[in-house]
Design a protein that fits this description.
The protein is mainly alpha-helical. Helix content is 57%, strand content 10%. The protein has one domain. The chain contains four helices and two strands. The protein has a two-stranded antiparallel sheet. Helix 1 packs across helix 2 and helix 2 packs parallel to helix 4.
């Protein structure tokens, strides 16, 4: 979907977040949190539809939004972007990717 958001690029951001968090801009930290939200959503969900083009539609196993870790990471990502107080292509792409994949909040 977004060519610059490759698994290697996200892994690099995550490693930088763990080892040297101050080296990341707010939108980059938001991407890390969004990736964690999407990953946790994949773990907590089941596939309900598979499409001919290979795409899938997933829904969360739990309807209790307050107990879902993916929702917590999603909120962290939104808070990070709000605290950062700016806009960027990264921030817009991250928000778009998360909203396409997680039905919550």
């Amino acid at each position: 979907m977004f060519p610059f958001l490759t698994p290697n690029a996200i892994t690099d951001l995550f490693v930088r977040y763990i080892t040297l968090p101050e080296s990341l801009r707010g939108d980059q930290v938001g991407i890390v949190f969004a990736a964690l939200a999407l990953g946790k959503f994949r773990v907590l969900s089941v596939v309900v539809d598979q499409f001919e083009d290979g795409g899938v539609r997933q829904v969360a196993l739990s309807e209790d939004i307050e107990s879902r870790d993916d929702v917590a990471w999603y909120r962290h990502a939104l808070y990070q972007l709000e605290a950062w107080g700016s806009t960027s292509f990264n921030a817009l792409s991250e928000s778009h990717a998360v909203l396409l994949n997680i039905d919550c909040c």
